């Protein structure tokens, strides 16, 4: 995972979700989701708003996210996620 704070292994994020330490009470897309498929690789880009709870604190986010997925064994697997805060003049 790549975010404004740098890179972090996806397994750390998933472990926080699995433990319940990180939860989301809302997650919505804004505008159209863009998907491009190149053989066994796909790139998904979307603007997402969400409300997360971590360590007892609520965090609201409006961000652009890009996911890179690879098809392996007939299943799509996310191999990279990159998030960027959406600016106030961001177009959909």
Written account of the structure:
With 92 residues, the chain is mainly beta. The chain is built from 1 helix and 6 strands. A hairpin with a 2-residue loop joins strand 4 and strand 5.
Count of individual beta strands? 6
Helix content: 10-25%
Return the string of H and E elements.
Answer: EEHEEEE
Largest sheet: 4 strands, antiparallel
Strand adjacency order, main sheet = 3-4-5-6
The global form is globular
Strand content: over 45%
What is the helix tally?
A: 1
N-C termini distance: 23 Å
Q: Residue-averaged pLDDT, rounded?
A: 90
Query: In angstroms, what is the radius of gyration?
Result: 14 Å
Task: Give the uncertain stretches in residue-range form.
Answer: none
* Strand-pairing-aware structural class: mainly beta
Key terms:
four-stranded antiparallel beta sheet, 92 residues, 6 strands
């Amino acid at each position: 995972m790549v975010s404004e704070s740098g890179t972090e292994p996806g397994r750390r994020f998933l472990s926080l979700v699995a433990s319940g330490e990180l939860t989301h009470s809302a997650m919505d897309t804004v505008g159209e989701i863009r998907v491009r498929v190149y053989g066994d690789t796909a790139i998904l880009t979307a603007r997402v708003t969400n409300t997360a709870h971590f360590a007892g604190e609520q965090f609201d986010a409006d961000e652009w996210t890009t996911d890179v997925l690879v098809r392996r064994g007939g299943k799509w697997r996310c191999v990279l996620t990159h998030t960027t805060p959406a600016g106030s003049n961001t177009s959909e």
